[in-house]
Inverse folding.
């Protein structure tokens, strides 16, 4: 709306150019990823994503062959684990903080999760590598392996402890504050009349909570999706605890790769090979797409839910 | 009877969930303090100002990394803040326009974007043509990470100004530029500054965007914006992966330094607000 | 002389018609009240005079509004708003600025004064005109948010007067004030009409009766009746007007 009737709205134009710049950067990112992935697509087609191979050969580009299936598997595996950890924790936290916590500890609890959400991830990584991994290895993995290794989930012999499990648990700890802030907000905004209705039917607090949680289900789904998106994009914390091994194995105790840790780990020496850089960009592009799909999905669900609330 | 038992179990359950959610934070702070403090005390002031010790032998210091973090954060702010604020203002002033709505959506998406992909991108467009890692590349990567936060906070700050002030300012016969930047900006100032500080606190702790851009520097303090530069998160990441015991100690000490820097910016900020977006 | 004239003024918000074919001639140096029940377009009408309506992208204006004979749509909206000042229903001095800076703002940003001395003179003059100088003269550097509601509204009047407008618009200026503050403002309006044309929108017929020389009755966007206040109140020509004045509608 041109409220000042100038011939050309210079105000709008000058601001607009900044917006265009931001879009431009994003578009350029997509272009760069696509063009850098072209060589490996030309060489291997879809196999870059469907095979688990990492044949790096110096001086003979034709012999090189890369398949990042292990990394894709690891990304999905660890992020699903993370979400499994985050789901009960974040819902429990949200309900406790809003319905039960006395005012004095409510605010500190929320501040604590905000700190966790912003904490530099490398600190999580250091703690994960030096503290969490040994504890998981000695008190969870070894005992479970000793007694239950016939179950595929527990079947890999834990060595150092760097594993899908360690990564999944660490990621779960990291994304819980984020998921809980979304769920918490939605739970808080449930119109009071629904709470009243639930209690007036004689429900116990537990039963009423179940009803209200059902009411905010879309928000929970969105929170989980967005948490998954966060987990899948996390790099340094994961790469310090996941083991960095090309491994497609059902066991929680096996070491593996995620797409982001693969990139972080392999990029240092990728330049001496002919196709590795392109392979890593292709892996990055895949991560780009998953990340985008999950985050957009989560955001759409959240927005629709918020709209329905207001309407 | 059964209902009452369920009720009690439920309460125990969610209390446990709550404890499990925040317990790691306390354990992390505890571990970093317990492992890092002795290192800092042994290293003394030299730890903060000196250069890195050789493998397996002593502590030296992480001076270049600390300096690097400040330089990178400052440069990233220089690049990112103006763009972010302007974008936020546009989204706030033209919320009905297609570009305005798309921008808001894009910013929300970019907030969740894997930061390693940003680093890879900047590497491709800046580091490779330039032929070397550089501070400017690292700063650009951090700027891209920082921008969505600042823009979203800016937009909210402007949107929260009651319409009546906008009417009053226009009613005095001011151009839109003056209304927004000379009158409304004063009222949005708190929100904008909050966004800036949150953005800066966040990027000071980021590692992935720096992996292939800044390069890292352990013995040289600052060689120029087109040369590699260190950063505390980057240093920690490299040290943890090495087998030397003294490097692990330095990693803990550095983690304590980073934690303190982060809390020093974040805690006062967070306590002065009602809520944050992260 | 006619200060403000509307010619077949029709205003739509999207599909909805809020002002239907209003023709008004407002003489200069009077207090002209526009009264009517809430939601019937009074505030919209007022905002069409100083083109503040354009802040709403859905508003569509047909017809004309003339300031001393000249169509406001032939003028730059900025110029229009400098000549027509406005005071709003909720007192809205800029809270982060001092009393002085609030009054000075229009002058400073429009580069209307050449020296600090001149600025101070005009600010003092405006505060005196708004009956605020005596209370504020030692407190001009205080933030505007520290003032009471009534003082804030007088500050807004000073802010508008500093621009030396030709016409002053007031959108229910006392709706949010207590009776004492209301009385002070009504007295102020009476004094100001010597130098300004004041158009005041009010939802209270008794206020219209107290302060105005002329009154227009607007109902559901249509101009039902207009004329000298005494006449309209004593002998309303339109049945609708009578029902409004006797409290049967509104």
């Amino acid at each position: 709306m041109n409220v000042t009737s100038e011939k050309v709205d210079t105000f709008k134009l000058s601001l607009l150019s900044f917006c265009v710049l931001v879009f431009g950067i994003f578009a350029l990112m997509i272009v760069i990823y696509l063009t850098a992935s072209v060589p490996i697509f030309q060489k291997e087609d879809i196999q870059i994503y469907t095979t688990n191979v990492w044949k790096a050969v110096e001086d003979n580009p034709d012999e090189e062959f890369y398949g990042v299936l292990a990394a894709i598997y690891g990304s999905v595996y660890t992020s699903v684990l993370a979400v499994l950890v985050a789901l009960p924790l974040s819902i429990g936290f949200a309900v406790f903080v809003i319905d039960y916590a006395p005012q004095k500890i409510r605010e500190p609890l929320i501040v604590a999760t905000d700190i966790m959400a912003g904490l530099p991830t490398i600190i999580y990584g250091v703690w994960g590598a030096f503290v969490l991994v040994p504890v998981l290895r000695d008190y969870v993995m070894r005992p479970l392996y000793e007694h239950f290794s016939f179950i595929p989930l527990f079947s890999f012999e834990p060595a150092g402890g760097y594993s899908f499990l360690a990564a999944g648990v660490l990621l779960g700890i990291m994304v819980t504050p984020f998921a809980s802030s979304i769920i918490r907000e939605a739970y808080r905004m449930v119109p009071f009349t629904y709470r009243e209705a639930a209690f007036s039917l004689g429900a116990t607090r537990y039963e009423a909570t179940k009803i209200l949680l059902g009411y905010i289900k879309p928000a929970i789904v969105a929170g989980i999706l967005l948490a998954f998106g966060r987990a899948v994009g996390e790099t340094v914390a994961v790469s310090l605890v996941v083991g960095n091994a090309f491994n497609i194995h059902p066991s929680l105790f096996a070491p593996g790769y995620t797409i982001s840790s693969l990139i972080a780990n392999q990029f240092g020496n990728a330049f001496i090979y002919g196709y590795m850089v392109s392979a890593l960009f292709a892996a990055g592009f895949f991560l780009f797409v998953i990340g985008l799909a999950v985050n957009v999905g989560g955001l759409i669900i959240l927005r629709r839910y918020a709209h329905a609330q207001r309407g | 009877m059964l209902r009452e038992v369920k009720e009690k179990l439920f309460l125990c359950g969610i209390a446990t969930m709550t404890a499990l959610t925040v317990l790691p934070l306390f354990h992390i702070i505890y571990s970093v303090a317990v492992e890092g403090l002795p290192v800092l005390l042994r290293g003394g002031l030299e730890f903060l100002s000196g250069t890195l010790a050789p493998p397996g032998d002593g502590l030296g210091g992480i001076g270049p990394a600390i300096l690097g973090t400040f330089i990178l954060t400052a440069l990233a702010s220089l690049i990112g803040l103006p763009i972010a604020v302007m974008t936020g203002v546009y989204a706030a002033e033209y919320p009905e326009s297609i570009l305005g709505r798309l921008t808001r959506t894009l910013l929300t998406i970019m907030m969740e974007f894997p930061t390693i992909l940003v680093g890879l991108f900047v590497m491709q467009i800046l580091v490779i043509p330039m032929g070397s890692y550089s501070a400017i590349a690292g700063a650009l990567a951090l700027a891209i990470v920082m921008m969505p936060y600042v823009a979203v906070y800016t937009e909210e700050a402007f949107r929260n100004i009651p319409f009546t002030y906008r009417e009053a300012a226009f009613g005095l016969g001011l151009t839109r530029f003056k209304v927004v930047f000379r009158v409304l900006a004063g009222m949005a100032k708190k929100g904008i500054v909050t966004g800036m500080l949150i953005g800066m606190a966040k990027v000071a702790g980021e590692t992935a965007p720096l992996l292939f851009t800044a390069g890292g520097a352990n013995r040289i303090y600052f060689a120029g914006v087109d040369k590699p530069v260190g950063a505390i998160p980057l240093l920690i990441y490299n040290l943890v992966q090495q087998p030397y015991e003294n490097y692990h100690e330095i990693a803990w000490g550095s983690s304590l330094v980073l934690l303190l820097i982060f809390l020093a910016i974040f805690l006062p900020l967070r306590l002065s607000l009602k809520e944050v977006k992260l | 002389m006619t200060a403000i004239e509307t010619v077949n003024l029709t205003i739509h918000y999207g599909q909805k018609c809020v002002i239907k074919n209003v023709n008004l001639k407002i003489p200069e140096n009077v207090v002209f009240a526009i009264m009517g029940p809430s939601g019937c377009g009074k505030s919209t009408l007022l905002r069409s005079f100083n083109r503040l309506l354009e802040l709403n992208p859905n508003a569509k204006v047909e017809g004309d509004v003339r300031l001393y004979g000249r169509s406001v749509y032939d003028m730059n909206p900025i110029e229009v708003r400098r000549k027509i000042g406005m005071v709003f229903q909720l007192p809205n001095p800029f809270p982060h600025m001092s009393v002085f800076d609030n009054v000075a703002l229009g002058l400073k940003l429009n580069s209307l004064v050449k020296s600090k001395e001149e600025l101070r003179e005009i600010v003092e003059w405006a505060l005196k005109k708004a009956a605020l100088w005596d209370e504020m003269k030692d407190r001009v550097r205080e933030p505007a948010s520290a003032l009471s509601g009534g003082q804030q509204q007088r500050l807004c009047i000073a802010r508008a007067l500093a621009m030396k407008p030709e016409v002053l618009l007031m959108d229910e200026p006392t709706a949010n004030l207590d009776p004492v503050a209301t009385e002070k403002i009504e007295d102020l309006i009476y004094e100001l009409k010597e130098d300004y044309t004041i158009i005041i929108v009010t939802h209270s017929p008794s206020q219209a009766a107290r302060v105005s020389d002329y009154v227009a009755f607007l109902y559901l966007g249509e101009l039902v009746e207009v004329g000298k206040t005494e006449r309209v109140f004593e002998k309303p020509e339109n049945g609708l007007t009578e029902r409004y004045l006797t409290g049967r509608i509104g």
In short: Chain B touches chain C at residues 96, 162, 164-175, 178, 182-183, 186-187, 189 (CB under 8 Å). Chain B has a mean pLDDT of 91.
